[in-house]
Automatic annotation (TrEMBL), chain A:
Region of interest: Disordered: 1-32
Comp. bias regions, Basic and acidic residues: 11-26
Name listed for the protein in its UniProt record: Uncharacterized conserved protein, DUF934 family
Pfam families attached to this UniProt entry: DUF934
Superkingdom in the source lineage: Bacteria
InterPro entries: UCP030820
Organism: Sphingomonas jatrophae
TrEMBL record, chain B:
Family matches, as InterPro entries: NiRdtase/SiRdtase_haem-b_fer, Nit/Sulf_reduc_fer-like_dom_sf, NO2/SO3_Rdtase_4Fe4S_dom, NO2/SO3_Rdtase_4Fe4S_prot, NO2/SO3_Rdtase_4Fe4S_sf
Domain Nitrite/sulphite reductase 4Fe-4S: 119-273, 407-540
Domain of life: Bacteria
A single cellular component GO annotation: sulfite reductase complex (NADPH)
GO biological process: sulfate assimilation
Domain annotation Nitrite/Sulfite reductase ferredoxin-like: ranges: 52-109, 342-393
Record's protein name: Sulfite reductase (NADPH) hemoprotein beta-component
Molecular functions per Gene Ontology: 4 iron, 4 sulfur cluster binding; heme binding; metal ion binding; sulfite reductase (ferredoxin) activity; sulfite reductase activity
Keyword terms: 4Fe-4S, Iron, Iron-sulfur, Metal-binding, Oxidoreductase
Native organism: Sphingomonas jatrophae
The UniProt record lists the keyword Iron-sulfur: yes
Cofactor(s) the protein needs: siroheme; [4Fe-4S] cluster
TrEMBL record, chain C:
Domain of life: Bacteria
Pfam families documented for this protein: DUF2849
Species the sequence originates in: Sphingomonas jatrophae
Entry-linked InterPro entries: DUF2849 (IPR021270)
Record's protein name: DUF2849 domain-containing protein
Length: 151, 542, 98
């Protein structure tokens, strides 16, 4: 997982956890993406199948996954599926994304966030540093406790 | 029993602080109730009729005396001196203050307890067989698997915003004491033809407004692939479970709509992929967990003889004491269903007493059952009389396990914001009406829900009662023929509903019908299944 | 008449709008007429109440009586625990609720 930058406390929250330059090309719809060969950014609605992107992940630089309501958790699976297939570009969660959900989304492979409501920097920093141990292997680099227990 | 290590403790402690901060943000106005509600629900905190209600997890229904005493302490210090044991093997407190909830969680954490995921659209507390590790008919103790599931499901990054809540039960015996076929996922350890032990996987059972008995989607799942298979089951559900209608969002609807075979195919396909990701904990981790559940040091050379000279004790012995796998030991079920009492409620003093008895007589172990009773799993037969005397002195010796007085009832309209009718007063009347005749009626499982959500398991009662609101007046529908055991079935509604006294009379007529039609050794359910609804309907409405 | 009710945000207690603030006792509740929505919004924003809602009630000799049994149980306490009633001494409570 990207290290939460504590120096952000009190300022603008850090919502992009990548070191490369932000991708400027606007994201196109999945239909539009599949219909053209040169787009490098796509937006996936919550009812769309992330696996449709798998044949094209080498040319993708940005996937924006929609979270129309915070209760709609399909995007968590979409994120993992893309990372499991080897996608390394930017994976952005956009929509009704709550600060308390961002740690889980990071674990599912998301590395940038575009929440509709503003996020408090201090609350986010605390949320990101709160859990020092996790129980599952997921799409991030964190080692689950069963791996730590058995070296 | 499982003991936390530094990692488990760190996770639970972090949760307490997270919730403390969430409560602070709510009370300070930094977040609205809409934003706070899902956060508090993930910690089992509801807003009910009279106050906040806190549901504390009792993982797979197992706890020790120290934990049990903590439950009594919480009841005394933060509530009104009692708690309610639930059909999910948890405990609920009815009079909680929001500003004290973080302190309660902090106290619980000191004894390795929490309220994590006791509500919300996530994987809930894992339930299991209350006789696990003690039952004579067990293939293997299911609790290490339940603990593995507890850890895997805790703050699962992908499965915390599922379409709807998700309940998993694990058993290791042929006799089903945990209603596995009425869970979202039911797992049964069993031995295959090659002599290996693995899981039979049931998916898509449940109660609520669309009750379903779960089909088997895989008859034998090797242990080594356990977590990756669960991961695949949940991922298919998370992606394709319905989110357009809250009443159709449980996995049972998905499995029903696409069919068990198609659901199983999708899971296998996902699993083929997921299995390659290294998500399964290594065997060493399972061994580490299983070691905590190694059989306790049972004494050998104990006598199996029990002095039955006290007739009241003998009645209780025959009804509430079950066979143990170790010679000289027995399993005691403490009924929380005294005649005229509130099913599942126990006072702080009673909880303390049960803790004392567990420490002194049951190798420091207790279990909570889905029928809202408490089990002392490892009692020497020589101690049974002393245990009974102590229970009897505290109103805990009701000799009615699995009889009509052993009623499952949800809190109903006396406590619950969702309820349409009261459940408890009805349970009280029924237990009083049949107090004298219940032993003659034999096993008769009566279950009452105060609304369609079916927390009182009415679909699965040999006799079930569903409370409804008919133009502002409480009305009760009667169902017959349900079962939550290995012979799982769903009850059928008899016909038009009744008022409170009317339904008690109707049950008496149904029970009289059973008595007149039963053959030797037949339970109420057996007779109903043999003769069908007609004679009962005739007697009830005639 | 219309009453405004809800739960105290911090304690969870059932509360009733009593004209100049909230009361634990329904006997002190007042008719909010057409102002329920406005009042609820103001009080909720001030975090003095959680989940406020308006109900129908009738004025009786002992004060307002909610039209629906759910709110009568909220006003009186669980029917199965007389010892935990809001007003434990009230002998007619059972009749009032049902």
């Amino acid at each position: 997982m990207a290290d939460p930058d504590q120096s952000d406390i009190g300022g603008e929250p850090k919502l992009r956890f990548r070191n490369d330059e932000p991708h400027e090309e606007p994201a196109v719809t999945l239909d539009s993406f599949l219909g053209q060969s040169n787009a490098t950014a796509v937006r996936l609605e919550s009812d769309e199948d992330a696996r449709a992107l798998l044949p094209h992940i080498d040319r993708l630089a940005l996937v924006e996954v929609a979270f129309p309501k915070f209760r709609d958790g399909r995007g968590y699976s979409a994120g993992r599926i893309l990372r499991e297939a080897g996608y390394t570009g930017e994976l952005r969660a956009q929509g009704d994304v709550l600060v308390d959900q961002i740690p889980l989304m990071l674990r599912c492979g998301f590395d940038s966030f575009a929440p509709e409501a503003s996020v408090d920097a201090k609350t986010l920093a605390e949320a990101l540093s709160r859990y020092t141990a996790v129980y599952q292997k997921a799409a991030d680099a964190r080692r689950p406790v069963w791996a730590l227990r058995h070296g | 029993m499982y003991k936390y290590d530094e990692y488990d403790q760190a996770i639970v402690d972090a949760r307490v602080e997270e919730f403390r901060d969430q409560v602070r943000r709510r009370l300070a106005g930094e977040i609205s109730e809409d934003q706070f509600k899902p956060l508090r629900l993930m910690n089992g905190l509801y807003l009910q009729l009279h106050a906040y209600m806190l549901r504390v997890a009792i993982p797979y229904g197992t706890l020790n005396a120290t934990q049990m005493r903590m439950l009594a302490h919480v009841a005394r210090k933060y509530d009104k001196g009692y708690g309610h044991f639930t059909t999910r093997q948890n405990i609920q407190y009815n009079w909680i203050k929001l500003d004290e909830a973080p302190d309660i969680l902090a106290e619980l954490a000191t004894v390795e307890m929490h309220a994590i995921q006791t509500s919300g659209n996530c994987i809930r507390n894992i339930s299991s067989d209350q006789f696990a590790g003690a039952a004579a008919d067990e293939v293997e103790d299911p609790r290490p698997w339940a603990e593995l599931l507890r850890q895997w499901s805790t703050f699962h990054p992908e499965f915390t915003y599922l379409p709807r809540k998700f309940k998993i039960a694990v058993i290791g015996a042929e006799e089903d004491r945990a209603a596995v076929k009425l869970h979202d996922i039911g797992l049964q350890l069993h031995r295959n033809d090659a002599g290996e032990v693995g899981f039979r996987v049931f998916v898509g059972g449940g109660m609520g407004r669309t009750p379903m008995v779960a089909p088997v989607i895989r008859d034998f799942l090797p242990k080594a692939d356990f977590l990756s298979y669960m991961e695949a089951c949940l991922r298919v559900y998370n992606r394709y479970g319905r989110r357009d209608n809250i009443y159709k969002a449980r996995i049972k609807i998905l499995v029903h709509e696409i069919g068990a075979a198609e659901y199983a195919r999708q899971v296998e396909e996902e699993w083929a992929h997921v299995k390659t990701l290294g998500l399964d904990a290594p065997a060493a981790e399972f061994e580490r967990i299983a070691a905590f559940f190694a059989p306790p040091a049972f004494e050998t050379g104990l006598s199996d003889t029990i002095d039955r000279s006290d007739p009241d004790f003998a009645v209780w012995l025959d009804q509430n004491v079950s066979a143990h796998k170790a010679p000289g030991y027995a399993v005691v079920t403490i009924s929380l269903k005294p005649t005229g009492g509130i099913p599942g409620d126990a006072t702080a003093d009673q909880i303390d007493l049960m803790a004392d008895l567990a420490e002194r007589y049951s190798l420091d172990e207790l279990r909570i059952t889905h029928a809202q009773n408490v089990v002392l799993p490892h009692v020497r037969k020589a101690d049974l009389y002393a245990v009974w005397q102590a229970l009897d002195a505290s109103g805990l010796a009701a000799p009615n396990l699995d009889l009509i007085g052993d009623i499952i009832a949800c809190p109903g309209l006396d406590y619950c914001a969702l309820a349409n009718a009261r459940s408890i007063p009805l349970a009280q009347k029924i237990s009083q009406r049949f107090a004298a005749t219940q032993h003659d009626l034999g096993e008769l499982k009566l279950k009452i829900s105060g609304c369609i959500n079916a927390c009182g398991h009415h679909h699965a009662g040999h006799i079930g009662i569903l409370g409804v609101d008919r133009k502002g007046v409480e009305n009760y529908q009667l169902l017959l023929g349900g079962s939550a055991a290995e012979d799982a079935s769903l009850g059928r509604i008899t016909g038009p509903g009744f008022d409170e006294d009317g339904v008690v009379d109707a049950i008496e007529r149904a029970v009289d019908t059973y008595r007149s039609l039963r053959t030797e050794g037949e339970r109420f359910l057996d007779t109903y299944r043999r003769v069908g609804m007609a004679p009962f309907k005739e007697a009830i409405y005639g | 008449m219309k009453l405004l009710t809800g739960n105290d945000l911090a304690t969870g207690d059932v509360i009733w709008w009593a004209g100049d603030g909230w009361s634990r006792h329904i006997a002190e509740a007042v008719d909010v007429g057409p102002h329920a929505e406005t009042l609820a919004a103001v009080e909720e924003a001030a975090r003095r109440v959680n989940g406020p809602y308006a109900i129908d009630a009738t004025q009786g000799p002992e004060g307002p009586r909610p039209a629906h049994i759910k709110d009568r149980i909220r006003a009186a306490g669980p029917t199965v625990r007389a010892d935990l009633a809001i007003r434990p001494a009230d002998a007619n409570r059972g009749e009032w609720v049902i």
